[in-house]
Amino acid sequence: MQHPAALARLIEALHGLPGIGPKTAQRLAFRLLQEGRGEARELAQALDVALAAVGRCRRCRMLAEGELCPLCASAARDDALLCVVESPADVIAVENSGAFRGRYFVLMGHLSPLDGIGPAELGLHELDLLLAAGQVREVILATNSTVEGEATAHVVGEMARARGLTATRIAQGVPFGGELEYVDGGTLAHALAGRQNVG
What we know:
By secondary structure, the protein is an alpha/beta fold. The chain has two domains: 5-53, Helicase, Ruva Protein, domain 3 (Orthogonal Bundle); 73-197, Dna Topoisomerase Vi A Subunit, Chain: A, domain 2. Helix content is 45%, strand content 14%. The protein has helices at residues 5-15, 22-34, 37-53, 70-73, 88-97, 124-132, 147-162, 185-193; strands at 55-56, 63-64, 78-85, 102-106, 138-141, 166-169, 196-197. Strand 5, helix 7 and strand 6 (166-169) form a beta-alpha-beta unit.
């Protein structure tokens, strides 16, 4: 049976979200349209407001409502330590570990030439300008333990070393193929404490 066009479009949009398969997308669409119309309107309004209000922090590229995110606006952070991560979810994961008080740079992805994601898409020029400013002393590479994450960490580590900075990689506790947002806080704290020099 074919769905009405508007319903099919909703299912397709939900299916486009990470971790949502076709059956789950269909179930969510049915739920929202059958008995959750109030929730659906609230979701649509919240999404509309977030799309209008949330942008990127001009310093670290984290999601923010103003020019600076709360972490970059805080004077209590250590400017000498810069943790480079792939996504805003990774910042939250590291923050929840309670083991890091430095600054962040969010790549919003990883190098993936086959998908057309290169240095420009990751903001590596902006990162290089940040490293050149002279406040950062150590770059902590906290990209995911995937092939793309490792390649990205290698490139960023080379950038840091070219500026005479220490480049370290989070080590223990993060499994190869794992993603930071799914690692518990204690494991992340251990990984940050046991970081090692790169190269």
